[in-house]
Structures are given as structure tokens and as C-alpha cells.
Amino acid sequence: MARMRGMTELRKTVGKYCLRSAFMVVCIASVPFALAHDGATGVVKERMELMSMLGKTMKSLKAIIRNTDPIDPATLSRSAEAIRGHSGQMAGLFPAGSYDKPSEASPVIDDRRQEFDALFLELGDSAKRLAALAETPDRSALAAWFRDTGRVCSNCHKIFRAAR
Ligand code: HEC
Q1: How far is the CA of 17 from the centre of ligand 1 (A)?
Q2: Which ligand 1 atom sits nearest the alpha carbon of residue 117?
Q3: Ligand 1 atom closest to Cα of 104?
Q4: Contact 106, 157 (CB under 8 A)
Q5: Is residue 138 a contact partner of residue 65, using CB atoms and an 8 Å limit?
Q6: pLDDT tens, residue by residue, 142-163
Q7: pLDDT in tens, 3-56
Q8: Are the beta carbons of 125 and 151 closer than 8 angstroms?
Q9: Does the pLDDT value for residue 135 go beyond 50?
Q10: pLDDT value at position 51?
Q11: Which of 112, 143, 146, 149 is surrounded by the most beta carbons within 10 Å?
Q12: Pocket test for ligand 1, best of 33, 46, 50, 51 (most atoms within 8 A of CB)
């Protein structure tokens, strides 16, 4: 009898443990979505998605810079094309007054619209320079490009994206 009870206890413990870890997986998996686009619709959702893609593109370029493999020109041109396309589209996705939660965009955009738009144009220029770099890929030139472009992102975020 004692042994039976032991088994039952064991099964209970394992059951509880599994339940807890299953929940943990579900919880962890859903966190980024909850933080990022929770409840966003229309232009807000659209611009958040484009920004996320910019983030992913920059991340993959960073990985290429850190890597020692030969740089694939086609990958660079694809990234340049993505950045150019997104920066061109995005200026039109911040209509006046579209800054309520869950958006992190700052209402300062309405007061300093020219400066805001100019930063998207700067990002477009960056994309052109990346396309040019793709013709003769060079790791240190790419690293310099990355620093400059990262500055354009953060110059805009500093002023026009509210702190989380
Ligand atoms: C001209 C301004 C501007 C530039 C340039 C810019 N961003 Fe943003 N970014 C914003 C604003 C404003 C938001 C907040 C949008 C919102 O929540 O409505 C944002 C949000 C983001 C987000 C969060 C998106 C989400 O999931 O909610 C990421 C990631 C991001 N930007 C990456 C980048 C990267 C990488 C670059 C440069 C390659 C860049 N951004 C360039 C203004 C800019």
C-alpha cells in the first residue's frame, strides 16, 4: 500500500510539474506579441510591422558583419531594397493624431513633421548606399554603413518614439 501511495504521489508531482512547464512555454511564447503589437490596428499596426521588419533586416546585417563568411551581394541588395521600400512607405503611415496606445509614436511628430520626414529620407539614402555597397561587398565598409544607419534609426527614436 505504501508503495502504491508512493507511485500516486510521484504521478501527481510529475503531473503538476508538466502542467507548470507547459504553461511556462505558452507564457514565454506569447510575451513578445503581447508587448509589441497588442491591439494595434490599421496604420499603427502596419507601421509597427514595417518597423519590426527594419529591425530584423538590421539584425541580419549585423550577423553578416560579425560572421567571417564571404558576403553574398544578393543578400545585401535584397536588404537595401527592403529598407528603401519600407522607408518610402513609412512616412505616409503616421497621420496626425495617430499616437494613442498601443502606439509608441510620439505626438511630437505633428509638431516637427519636416524633421521626422527628413529622417525617413535619410534612411532612404542609406538604403541607396547599401545597394552600392552590394556591388563590391566589403566587411569594414558594411560595418561603417551599419553604424551610420543605426544612428538614423536612433536619432528618430530618441525624439519621435516614446520610451516604453
Ligand atoms: C523617422 C523616424 C524613424 C526612423 C528613421 C526609424 N524609426 Fe523605428 N520607429 C519610429 C516610431 C515613431 C516608432 C513607433 C511606432 C508606433 O508604435 O506607432 C518606431 C518603432 C520601431 C520598432 C518597434 C516596432 C514594434 O514592434 O512596435 C522597431 C523594431 C524599430 N522602430 C526599428 C527601427 C530600425 C531598425 C530603424 C532603422 C533602420 C528605424 N526603426 C528607423 C520611428 C522611426
Answers
A1: 40
A2: 1
A3: 17
A4: no
A5: no
A6: 999 999 999 999 999 999 998 6
A7: 555 555 555 544 444 444 444 443 333 334 445 567 899 999 999 999 999 999
A8: no
A9: yes
A10: 97
A11: 149
A12: 51
C-alpha of residue 153 to centroid of ligand 1, in Å: 7
Cβ contacts of 159 within 8 Å, gap of 6 or more: 106, 108, 112, 115
Closest CA to 91 of 60, 62, 114, 70: 114
Cis peptide before 102 (omega within 30 of 0): yes
Please state the rounded mean pLDDT for residues 96-111: 96
- Cα 64 to ligand 1 centroid, rounded to whole Å: 22
Q: Which residue has the higher pLDDT, 103 or 15?
A: 103
Say which residues have a Cβ less than 8 Å from residue 58's Cβ, sequence separation at least 6: 146, 149, 150, 153
State the amino acid at position 91 in one-letter form: A
Ligand 1 pocket by C-beta < 6 Å: which residues?
A: 36-37, 44, 47-48, 51-52, 54-55, 58, 103-105, 116, 119-120, 123, 149, 152-153, 156-157, 160-161
- What's the pLDDT score for residue 162? 86
